[in-house]
Amino acid sequence: MRTTFWIVFLVLLTATACSTSSDDGKGDVNFADQTIVPLDQYSPNGDAVDLVEDEGSPDTVVPDEMALDLVEVEEVEADLCQPDCVDRECGPDGCGSECGSCIVGTICLDEGVCVPPPKVPVTGDLVITEMLINPKAVDDTDGEWFEIRNTTGESVSLEGVSLRDDGGDFFSVDKTIQIGPNKHFVFGRHIEKSLNGGAKVHLAVENFDLSNTSDEIILQYNGVELDRVAWDESWTIPDGASLALAPEYQNILDNNDKENWCASTLPIYDPAGDLGTPGTINPDCAGEVCVPACDGKECGADGCGGSCGACPMTKQCIAGLCVSGGELPGVGDVIVNEFMFNPKSSQDTNGEYIEIWNTTPKDLLLANMIVRDNDGDAFTIQGSLVLGAYGYLVLGRNADPEMNGGVEVDYVYSGFTMANNGDEIILELDGTVIDSVAYVLDLWPLPEGKALVLDPWVADWELNDDPMAWCPATVLLPMGDFGSPGAENEECPML
DSSP E strands: which ranges in 89-179? Predict the structure, then answer.
């Protein structure tokens, strides 16, 4: 009891002493009026917290949760870095982090796309697509340039590629340079736009002139010719405008024909200057600009002479998608399921196509399969082409829907045509006939502008020899012909 008394006495004495004025002139100090208290009482984690008096309870100190400066908050939010990963699957996001990482076997390009590492160029990978031979906005040689295009779905290395003509001009690329999938690259006498007439030139070349009358541009790698364009007095070389190769002819065979080139009509830089489209897709010869069609596609042709992309080394491109490899087909595993031999809405061979069907639940590898007839027409499927389980594959003469009647073609072939009055379609692998169809005049329905489709009820490698198993297609294609390429056939009415 006595102890309790002395404790109470000491507490009261201390409180009285703290409330008296000091003799240093500083006045009273009252914790009820104090607006700042030790941080560790209100912020266990040590963060700074502003504190103010609660007007409803003057003896209580609370965090300042309602008195934030809104202008300062907005400024803080505006200063926060916003990652930019739109249309990017890899590479920096602009805020010190990454948009994503590429799988093993691919690399990230500056534009944020994952692609296989650059390949050494082979014949046909790089195509000469535009050349300004006779500029007039600047001195002739100063404004000369020419453009090449990587028409593959992979990055291609230019290091070691040489440029030459047949007259002694020569230049070799001695830098580590690569062209991305479906990208353009411009060689010119000057990189400076003020000297070259406003063109976007990627690499300046020396000792390489383009003659206005006759000359050549030859691309080589390790002595192997990659592409060549040669012109002479029979070509029309425009003044102050480039010669542009139409998008539908951007390959190493068609760019030898002067009829596939036309004078550019778009200004390079200044409307009063020279004309051309260095570094971008050329318009067609009617002046229309081709727009690549790659929606929903991971790979394959883009419709403008280029590629929608490349698949990783572990996968192959089929119908615009990257798929894993499969088994080799046996007899009857792949059959002829539909074919257009006499189109009406397009030039005959442009619109021809053959649809084959995988009758099995397995992915089938079609590499080196031969498609032929009995008269010498034939082509071999190149690359590790895979046909998915129960999948359809459309083989066509032309990949451009504007030229082939509106057909989406998965694989483009040449060297094989189908006669309108009868022919054979034979699928062969390693000397074994996998399937064959022979249509003949008078016994088979041979319609114009309509594909022949195999009735799904008799979709068999033996039954598809019977003309009664086939009928003219009734599904309308975009350009006016009839067929169902890449899709299940309708039933034939007679069956």
Answer: 107-108, 114-115, 126-132, 145-150, 156-157, 161-164, 170-172, 178-179
- Between CA 315 and CA 245 the distance in angstroms is 32
> From start to end of 281-410, where are the E strands?
315-318, 321-324, 334-340, 353-358, 364-365, 370-372, 378-380, 386-387, 392-396
Share of the chain above pLDDT 70, in %: 82
Number of folded domains in the chain?
2
The whole-angstrom separation of Cα 319 and Cα 80 is 43
Maximum Cα–Cα distance across the chain? 130
Q: Look up residue 50 and give its two tokens.
A: 């502003």
Residues 300 and 399 in one domain: no
pLDDT of 334 > 70? The answer is yes
Residue 27 counted as domain residue: no
**Per-residue pLDDT band at 319 (split at 50, 70, 90):** low
pLDDT at 9: 45
CA distance 384 to 387: 10
Beta strands in 17-95 (DSSP E): 51-53, 61-63
Residue 13, classed as helix, strand or coil, is: helix
Q: What is the pLDDT of residue 312?
A: 73
Domain holding 346, by residue range, is 315-472
pLDDT averaged over every residue in the chain: 83
Mean predicted confidence (pLDDT) in 76-82: 68
Do 195 and 122 fall within a single domain? yes
Do both 283 and 378 map to the same domain? no
Q: Are residues 260 and 409 in the same domain?
A: no
Residues in the chain: 495
Residue 39: CB atoms within 10 A of its CB come to: 14
